Amino acid sequence: MESKPDTFDGGERRRHKRYRVKDDALVFLGKDTGAILDISQGGLSVSFAAFEQQQTLPSHLDLFFAHSRFYLPNLPILLVGEVQTLTSSIFSSLRVKRLSMQFGALTSEQQTLLDDFILHNTVAES
Question: Which of 1, 23, 57, 108 is the most buried (most CB within 10 A)?
Answer without folding.
Answer: 57
